[in-house]
């Protein structure tokens, strides 16, 4: 059985909830990624911030990116996957929640991220097509 732990990218960096959007954007740029988990001072996952969130919810909404924090963009509980969950569960979770990236947790500890590309490499081609279609139609 292939698990989320098998296909994830380990060693994920977080944007601290109290960091400004400017700091989060710099981190995204330096790491060459499109999203970062948002972690609170208790080291628990608070949400995920994407480059699109920054453009739409901050810049497009006329907010000051230096005065807005990453934590302000954390909406409710983040959609996650357990490290030992089967890749079929990863697929189903991405599809049902219409997300392209999932934080991977082991207990309450963030241990990695699974992206659409990670899932695509591990699933048979028909399932990948189903996932791409589901995410594109949402």
TrEMBL record:
Transmembrane segments: none annotated. Gene3D superfamilies: CBS-domain (3.10.580.10). Keywords: CBS domain. Residues 8-65, 73-131 form the CBS domain. The keyword Lipoprotein does not apply. The keyword Membrane does not apply. CDD domains: CBS_pair_HRP1_like. InterPro entries: CBS_dom, CBS_dom_sf, Diverse_CBS-Domain. Pfam families: CBS. This is CBS domain-containing protein. It comes from Streptomyces melanogenes. The lineage of its organism: Bacteria, Bacillati, Actinomycetota, Actinomycetes, Kitasatosporales.
């Amino acid at each position: 059985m292939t698990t989320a732990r098998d296909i994830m990218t380990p060693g994920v960096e977080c944007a601290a909830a109290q960091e400004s959007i400017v700091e989060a954007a710099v981190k995204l740029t330096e790491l060459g990624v499109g999203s970062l988990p948002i972690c609170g001072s208790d080291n628990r996952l608070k949400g995920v911030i994407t480059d699109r969130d920054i453009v739409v919810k901050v810049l497009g909404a006329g907010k000051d990116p230096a005065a807005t924090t990453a934590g302000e963009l954390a909406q409710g509980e983040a959609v996650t996957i357990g490290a030992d969950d089967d890749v079929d569960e990863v697929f189903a979770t991405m599809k049902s929640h219409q997300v392209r990236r999932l934080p991977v947790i082991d207990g309450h500890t963030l241990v990695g991220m699974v992206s659409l590309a990670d899932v695509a490499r591990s699933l048979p081609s028909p399932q990948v097509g189903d996932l791409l279609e589901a995410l594109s139609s949402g």
